[in-house]
Amino acid sequence: MDENLPTITEKCGKKILSVHDAMDILNGRWKITIVAALFLNKMRFTDLLREINGISGKMLSRELKDLEINQLITRTVLNTQPIGVEYELTEYGLTLEKVLKALSEWGVDHRKRITGR
Amino acid sequence: MDENLPTITEKCGKKILSVHDAMDILNGRWKITIVAALFLNKMRFTDLLREINGISGKMLSRELKDLEINQLITRTVLNTQPIGVEYELTEYGLTLEKVLKALSEWGVDHRKRITGR
DNA sequence: TGTCACTGTTACTTTTGGTAACTGTATGAC
DNA sequence: GTCATACAGTTACCAAAAGTAACAGTGACA
């Protein structure tokens, strides 16, 4: 009755692995939300602080660094006064579109569910 | 030049919010991976420990409780010896299919990218 | 009687996240 | 000139979450 159980890991375990890989890049409480914000528009530091409810400057700064290291976003210093820094999704970052879309749709449905549809 | 910036929040901020809502439920490092595992099959505690690389009993136990509270999975005690407990996605848990599919696909591509395509 | 499998829990440490105050530069108001 | 403001962060300190390892309780089996 149990003889075929090991094959679950062998055959389909890759899915678990790949999901975990994805979450390794998108770890922490804010990365996915930041990427979601940048899907709307490229934004500057303070724009992101405003758009993302609850995030602090420290966390935003740290998460943006991580996302840049992982090549999901670019950081461009503008020659404005005072200095502005613009964050934008890279082409690679844009490949997260389906993930973000799915999450957003599920989030909307979930909100309906918990607020009593 | 800045007059239209506030509308970003007003018009599209809901997407950011809904993504953040979704991540509030799927928070922590393991929940999404656990759900991914349960998409393959209903499983028992030790099965999950085996399938999910790196998780500890403590975290698995805790995350399963959270997922059960949020009605994404059910917990069924089997009358086997020694006692077995089976975890299974609820219908609501199954609504995460698109999210998991998107994450899995992105994870596969990402792995190709970092292991040198 | 001792060991094993299963499903957890507990105590302890490490890592991560949150808060609030601060840095440094430039700009316009007074 | 000096004061307050905006931008893009950083720092020091504290709280919460996650990781590790050892243990608990039950019954089967040798």
Automatic annotation (TrEMBL), chains A, B:
Gene3D superfamilies, per the entry: Winged helix-like DNA-binding domain superfamily/Winged helix DNA-binding domain
SUPFAM superfamilies registered for this protein in UniProt: Winged helix' DNA-binding domain (SSF46785)
Stored Pfam families: HxlR (PF01638)
Secretion signal span: none
InterPro entries referenced in this protein's UniProt entry, alphabetically: HTH_HxlR, WH-like_DNA-bd_sf, WH_DNA-bd_sf
Domain HTH hxlR-type: 12-115
UniProt cross-references to PANTHER family, sorted A to Z: TRANSCRIPTIONAL REGULATOR, TRANSCRIPTIONAL REGULATOR, MARR FAMILY
Protein name per Swiss-Prot or TrEMBL: DNA-binding HxlR family transcriptional regulator
Organism this protein belongs to: Pedobacter cryoconitis
